[in-house]
Amino acid sequence: MCSVLYVDDEQLLLDLCRSYLEKSGDFRIETTGSAPEAIEKIQNTSYDAIVSDYQMPGMDGIVFLKEVRSRFGDIPFILFTGKGREEIAIEAINNGADFYLQKGGDPRSQFAELAHKIRKAVERRRAIEELRDNESQLRLLQISVDQASDEVYWLDFEGKILYVNDSACRNTGYSREEFLKMTVFDLDPDFTSEMWERSKCILKEKKTNVFTTRHRYKDGTIVDVEIMTNYVSKDGRDYSFAFSRDITRRKQAEDALRESEERFEVLAESSLDGILVTDLEGRVLTANHACLAMFEIDGLPDRQPLNIFENLTPDSVNAARHDFFAMRPDKKGVTRTYFAITARGKNVYIETLGNRITYKGAPANIISIRDVTARHEMEERLRESERRFRTLSDGALEGIMIHDKGVISDCNRRFAELFGYRPEEIIGRNGFEFMMTPESHARISDWKQQGAGGTIDIVGTRKNGTLFSGETSSAPILWQGRPQRIVQMRDITDRKLAEDALRESEERYRRLIAQSFDAVVIHQDGQVVFANDAAARLVKAKSPDEIIGRATLDFVDPAFFGIVSERIGIMLENPGATVPLIEERFHCVDGTTVDVEVIATATVYQGKSAVQVVGRDISGRKQAEEALRAANRQLNLLNSITRHDILNKVMEISGYLELVKQEPLDPKVMDMVGILASTTRSIGEHIEFTRIYQDLGSTESRWQDLARVLPPRSQVPPGVTLQSDVGGVEVYGDPILERIFFNLLDNTLRHGRHATTIRVYARECPDGLDIFWEDDGIGIPVQEKEKIFQRGYGKNTGLGLFLAREILSITGIAISETGEPGRGARFEMKVPHGRYRIPPGGNAD
């Protein structure tokens, strides 16, 4: 049952809500009439959820929500109010409300929806808490595997090693990085690919497989190991999860036992180890002198035979019985250790090795026993040393040290080397007195008083008096029976120098940006995160703070949303990319607009991808350009009138020259008349050419559909096919862009000779968009490929391709001829990023 606190200043609503919600049996409702009273209740009572009205005297629902979040954490909170304004809902959600529900309508439906919201919020919170518990258990399991005494390996079914624990690295001498580059064949000198395939088949069939083999350690040592592998299948892939244990000593004992079996009669009595033979029930049939002496027995009784289990401690009897009765003729003996008590009450730790034999014609067990009490004590000391080594090595930055109130109890070699010492020179000394500056000592004291959480940077003093920067962390540890602290440290001198250099660089950058006459803005995830004073002045803001935090597109004129969004996408997809300078329009904070030219670059701001925009007010220039266009329009009008008058005069001259040709004239005069007629036609063609290009650069560039500016089919003569594959592709260019393609068509028809096919297509490339005009005519000679774009070159006016390059250059588009002579001409136009756009489904390779 969910406990819910409902807060509302209307008592009737409190009673009504309690009635509806408690009727289901799923809720226990407590009510109160104000937010301050609710806070007192929450301090003394735990609730699963809180439902609150918005408009209440003293403290409204939003302020109440903020108090709950700051003082009581993530208790599910639902704002249930009659105020339906959108800004209230947004503010509630932004301050951590789980749901916002408006009062009104059918009460049954209203309270059913409220009950649903409460259940959903409570379930979500419980799911989050359960996920946190599961994550803690998973971390505990990971620590258990990493610190297991057995070697642990994960392998895929190609034999590649995917994971090893600390024990595997410690025993074999390989590092984790080296292991992850190895396969099972690198580790096991006896393993062949055929054996691996058989092993995989057995593992997939039985799911678990136990076997012994040999491992080659990094120093070349070959050791016997026992492997237990487990089959795991995940996401359609097969894995082997294996435990490995060094059984070298056990193998040696087994070899020794086999040798003793061959020479049993000769060697038994001379053996220092105890040797006894029992029947299958554990009754001792015979024992050598060493065995009797080990258990302080004077001799075997004649009538009542001894039982092997009589001298074991209660803690060892069950394990010994299990091991004893598990012995089989087909199973090799296994070394076991037990606690035993001699006949005189002395405690000993014994190691045994048993095997099934035939003794005097009957099945029996032969057991070799060795007193390993001294070795056990040594191994205990060794395990303590190993635990100390693991503690010093695992989880360390680099240097590791254990101290008791500053006095160094132990350290690894790396820690001593950081300060220029050997470990034996500093163990037993107070590190605070000689290993760091007084300022660092004071910082550490303050850090300890605050709980010594996380890491702290200090300045250490080396033996030779030089200083270095170190990063250190500390944690409590029980060491040698006393609570002490373990310290981990690494040398960060180089990093500190780099950080100082970076800070200087950033400071120079900030000063440069602050003093720049150009507006500089950085936006990230759709919001402005940085702006300089020039940017604030540009959009008429009082300060950069008035800009920071607002949406980037708030300052972009809607007419430029498309190209701005496209440029942002290009930079975020290509870190380090820079898009070309373009002109656009900004919205100022006072509602006015300003014309700007901007260039943008992909950058990184506070560790995340961002876009840096540099802009400049070009309103004055735009006004001048508009005035220039107005003047151009007037000049064009004058040119039009003048051209009309000139063409009329050209027509009159041409007419009279034709009349003169019809008169009988001297041949020399007739030649001169012909020259005059040709010159007059050339004048007319040049005048006509000025009509076509009089508007070049006089109007603003705009987005143009490439398919619409190509020559229409009606302009293509019979016998020539124009193929277009540029549907949907748009280019930002001069309004007379279509004249480019008319010129290219004219070029194909005039100079292509036998051209029958023209193909126009586009292809995206790393530098932008390539547009191709190809024909199958005679092509253009190599030596003329660049000359054809020069003014006056050619057989006609000599201006067509020259002006084509000029028109395209207005918007940064380059044109060149890249065809193969004899196989056709190919004109290639390179459009930079930001000067073209291709909607989904557009034709561009």
Structure description:
With 845 residues, this protein is an alpha+beta fold. It has 26 helices and 33 strands. A five-stranded parallel sheet has the order 2-1-3-4-5, sandwiched between helices. Strands 7-6-10-9-8 form a five-stranded antiparallel sheet, sandwiched between helices. A hairpin with a 5-residue loop joins strand 8 and strand 9 (222-234). The radius of gyration is 46 Å and the shape is elongated.
Structure, briefly:
It is built from 26 helices and 33 strands. It has 845 residues and is of the alpha+beta class.
Strand ordering within the main sheet:
2-1-3-4-5
Major beta sheet, specifics? 5 strands, parallel
Termini separation comes to: 62 Å
Proportion of β residues?
A: 25-35%
**Structural class of the secondary structure composition?**
alpha+beta
Mean pLDDT over the residues? 85
Helix content: 25-40%
